[in-house]
Amino acid sequence: MTVAHATPVASQRHGAHFDAAESWSRDAIEAYQLQALRAQLQRVGAESHYYRATFARAGFEAGDLQSLDDLARLPFTRKADYVATITPENPYGAFMCAPQAAVRRMHFSSGTTAAPSPQFWSARDLDRWAALYARNAHAQGVRAGDVFQCMFTYTWFVGGLGATAGYQKAGALVIPAGSQDTERQIATMFAYGTTAFCATPSFALHLAEEVARRGRNPADAGVRTIMVGGEPGASVRATRARIEEAWGARCYDAYGCLEFQPIAADCEAQEGLHLAEDFSYAEVVDAESGTPVPDGQPGVLVLTHLDKEAGPLVRWWTGDMVVRERKPCACGRTHARLLGGVLGRADDMLVVRGVNVFPSAIEELVRTMPALTDEYRIVIDDSVRDAAGFLKAIRLQVEAADGPEAGDALAQRVRSRLGVHAVVEVLAPGTLERSTHKARRLIRQ
Ligand SMILES: [Zn+2]
Q1: Ligand 1: centre distance to CA 170 (Å)
Q2: Could you tell me if 240 and 113 are in contact, meaning their C-beta atoms sit under 8 angstroms apart?
Q3: What is the pLDDT of residues 7-60, one digit of tens each?
Q4: DSSP string of 367-397?
Q5: Domains in the chain: how many in total?
Q6: Residue 224's domain spans which residues?
Q7: Residue 66 has pLDDT above 50, yes or no
Q8: Cα(377) to centroid of ligand 1, in Å?
Q9: Ligand 1 center to residue 337 CA distance, Å?
């Protein structure tokens, strides 16, 4: 297995940044992407069964790629396309681009909507993954001497091992703690002087609650840096504020999915997540028409691997709604940013009497109200649908000690800020289940 094109050096410190690639000019980024894509499509079109057939159907040859825009001649690859190639006889599917002997790791999708499907990494893919993760950790202030408690799940989830390898490479002492056993997490944190940790936003808040319940102040733990991922959260300003306040630490968002590890992460400026533009080529497109949307407007993120060896994807429909910004960041990095992180899944966008509402906008409102706890649910059932099945309102479940008043106040804010009607049910604090992994807060019935 050989890769014909050059790849950026991902292990040398460059000024304040981890890699020289982080401050390439826009022209240099695009020139790199074009030459990398040409080589990648050449290989993918020859070696992946799925893309060989797709290229043929589209009448596309790798040599046809004269500009980055030419990539749009190829169709999107959706999760359903991927899953359809996986059969009991061929559990590896049709996207593999490397001999099996060159594959070093397989992770699986969570399988919440379909049977778990695998993704693959070669040795070089794993090195690249760790180096990009280290870049992100460095951008968030992690250095040698930090003690990093990794509270992402390890079993069947892609997050734990990825963060471990990346933070080790960034210089930290890593404690692979997983997301179970709250008692031991807290004891470890205080005993070993954890200075940085990662967790889902839900678990970061849950843990702070649990530390406080034991009569200690989470801010006394000495944690300076918190990286959260796995759910939209840190980019919801109010959630970030709650996590930062509880722990007395800076909270940074990270975004990845099984298929692309990692995609983007906050830098110290916390003004949007930098895409790794030397790892994947990003398009932002209209959810319905699939045509590009301008920077600054929401659209679905579509990604293409620039150099992945084992299971590369072309025009992968992430299903995540984002807003891209290509103006340089205050930190000096030039890679494009996703403002506000992931706004939500395109599928989770609620249309209430013609108004688009993302669950993250509800979260922002819930978590800016001191009377409410961090936990909430958005329930979509027949009580808020009209006869034709369209939404006329949303139903919210929240927790507060003072009952109806908080509910009325929230309903009023949803109406004034988002322009939709909310039916709010106020429960006693502690009623809604807390999540240590990925929380599911949008319930469709
Ligand atoms: Zn930045």
Answers
A1: 18
A2: no
A3: 444 444 455 899 999 999 999 999 999 999 999 999 999 999 999 999 999 999
A4: HT-TTEEEEEEEEESGGGB-TTS-BS-EEEE
A5: 2
A6: 9-345
A7: yes
A8: 32
A9: 8
* 191 and 322 fall within a common domain: yes
Check pLDDT > 60 for residue 1. Answer: no
Q: Is the dihedral of CA 229, 234, 235, 239 positive or negative?
A: positive
272 Cα–ligand 1 center, Å: 7
Q: What's the 167 CA to ligand 1 centre distance in angstroms?
A: 19
- How close is the Cα of 267 to the center of ligand 1, in Å? 5
Same domain? For 245 and 389 the reply is no
Mark which of 345, 380, 398 sits at the end of a domain: 345
**Cα dihedral across residues 351, 357, 360, 366: positive or negative:** negative
**Does one domain contain both 355 and 384?**
yes
The model's pTM is 0.85
Q: Which residue bears the tokens 């600054």?
A: 296
- State in Å: Cα 221 to ligand 1 middle: 27
Q: Is residue 341 part of a domain?
A: yes
Which tens digit of pLDDT belongs to each residue from 265-294?
A: 999 999 999 999 999 999 999 998 999 999
- What is the rounded CA–CA span in Å between residue 404 and residue 421? 16
CA 172 / ligand 1 centre spacing (Å): 21
Cβ-based neighbour number of residue 113 at 10 Å: 10
HSE-CB at 426 with a 13 A cutoff on CA atoms is 16
Among 329, 427, 434, residue whose Cα is nearest residue 371: 427
